Amino acid sequence: MISYPLREYISSKKDDDYHRSYSTIRRKTSPEESSSYRFIYIIIFIILLVILSIFYSFYTYIDPTCFNQECTDFVCQAYSEGLIGGHLCPDLCTTKKIQLQNCLGEHKHFRSRLFEDNDNHQVIRCYLRHPLSKSKPSGDVKEYFKFPSDDSTLDVLYNALQEHIQKTITLENSDVLLEELMKFADFNKDGKISLSEARSIWSLVQIDEFIYTLLLSDKFYIPKIHGTCGHIFAVEQVLNGKLPFNDQQELLSGSERPNWYQRVRLAVGIVEYFSDTWHYQDSDQHLHLCQPLINSFGFDKDFESKMLKSNHIISSKSILSRLPNQCHANKDCSYDSYCHGTCNMTTNTCQMKEFNKDSLHELCSLLSSLILPDANVTFQINFDLFMRQCQEIVTDGSIYNSDFMDLTALQIRQTLLLQNLKNLFWANIEYQMSKITKKSTKKPAGAPPIHSIK
């Protein structure tokens, strides 16, 4: 007899019993049961694959990380070291009255985040360009706020601002905006600009949205800037975050639909925006809106249109500077998925004419959807006349189909059209103003009569 340790015998016996038992079970399992088990496993695998695909797609399109703590830590560290300043800094960093919470999220390619501050009726924008990443910022924060240098003068800042503004947008009189920037930079209103204030305003002008918000700050349709801290800035919160349309871009019905005079009032602000930005300061600079017009405006309690964000506004010069110097097809002249130009095949250069054509067509279409329902017959007759004129401008081959667009003729015709629309709107709502709102928006003094457009 062969002798071996008991422990080994027990193990081998258990193995024999296991294999014998398992073999018995396998012999008793029917083919139908095995097939059903395989089917269940396949279904579970497919479900898990779908769930993982959804999560992956969500993460690649929308970055769920809000960086609220990173935004706060970064600017507060710079503030504590005396590198930056601003009205928001004490409440954000010292008293903690402002918390970057209620993240609205944003498409990751915008590289910024919006935070709601309902207590103070404002939204706070934090840009994520160079200062922030998914990991906490490391190193010396002074590397991000190093201009102007310690030994710089006010002239250095002024010249740098002037050069940067001219790269962003060409203005006939840039001194007006520069003076506004210098005035804004004096956060404590002591008549002087400190080094921390200079570095703060320099970090802010790197953000196009801030420049355009300040540039149009005297317009009633632009939310006002409430305060800043370094490269973080807060703007007025828009009460209603969308125009009265549903997801299918149809006008709301029933009690959700504002009355006709209120909708005409909304239209006034949208037309005012186009009037102001079509040829800014009567120059050839056009401020384009590179997102659907219907998604760009909300409104306040007085039914005044308010632009939701200014980060989609861009000047024609900025667009041209970002397009290729030479083109061979229209696809070479695309700025983004919404704003696209055409290629002049004679000069092989990009032109802006499609930008202008599409924006005017979109405006007229939106106005028709907004105010034609429930309008009286007299209004419809006058409004239809202007819509026909709008269509004539959009389809005029002498303007858009030639290699060299007649900007002067286009400017005159569109300016007259927009002015006539505004006069028509004001004529219909002026006597209703006190019933619609408690606060009236003054009609422009001495508005000219309605002109004919040929």
How does this structure look, described?
It is a single chain. This protein is α+β, with helices and mostly antiparallel strands. The protein has 15 helices and ten strands. It has helices at 6-28, 31-61, 68-80, 88-94, 154-168, 174-185, 195-205, 208-215, 260-278, 316-322, 353-371, 377-394, 397-400, 407-429, 433-436, and strands at residues 112-117, 122-127, 225-229, 232-236, 287-289, 297-299, 305-307, 313-315, 342-344, 349-351. The strands form four sheets. The chain has a four-stranded antiparallel β-sheet with strand order 1-2-4-3, sandwiched between helices. The chain has a two-stranded antiparallel sheet with strand order 5-8. Mean pLDDT is 78; it is low at 1-28, 56-64 and 130-135.
Low-confidence runs of at least 5 consecutive residues: 1-28, 56-64, 130-135
Q: What does the largest sheet look like?
A: 4 strands, antiparallel
Beta-strand percentage range: 5-15%
Mean pLDDT, as a whole number?
78
Helix/sheet category: alpha+beta
- Sum up the overall morphology in one term: globular
Please list the strands of the largest sheet in the order they lie side by side.
Answer: 1-2-4-3
Order of helices and strands: HHHHEEHHHHEEHEEEEHEEHHHHH
State the end-to-end CA separation.
119 Å
Report the count of strand segments.
10
Helix count, DSSP H or I runs of 4 or more residues:
15
